[in-house]
Amino acid sequence: xxxxxxxxxxxxxxxxxxxxxxxxxxxxxxxxxxxxxxxxxxxxxxxxxxxxxxxxxxxxxxxxxxxxxxxxxxxxxxxxxxxxxxxxxxxxxxxxxxxxxxxxxxxxxxxxxxxxxxxxxxxxxxxxxxxxxxxxxxxxxxxxxxxxxxxxxxxxxx
Length: 158
Description:
By secondary structure, this protein is an alpha+beta fold. 36% of the residues lie in helices and 13% in strands.
């Protein structure tokens, strides 16, 4: 998100004002130190998590995150939600696989479980749908569109 802050700043200095559209790497743009967040107004991006979504799981996560010491009162972005989901996906895979404490067994069982056709995970970053993994480990999950309005990430209306 730091490079897009520089691009938006330079575009503004040149008078270049297209509609900006990006992906989840832009999430965090509004927290770049020294960046004029007004330059991000109207930027759209695809991301698996929008903190202003109204579902119960997202709101509970945001409230807990903002109140925690590590959150420093900041609103979580998709990277925080991805970390949260990662831990819970691993937990659910461990439960399903019946994993013991042996790290080698754990690794093998996780790979087998995540890449099996009967394992899926629904979390904060899966748009309410089950995420699955290919036999080589790539995740498949739905993106969510968002737009920056009034200095806040908002879900993009379809």
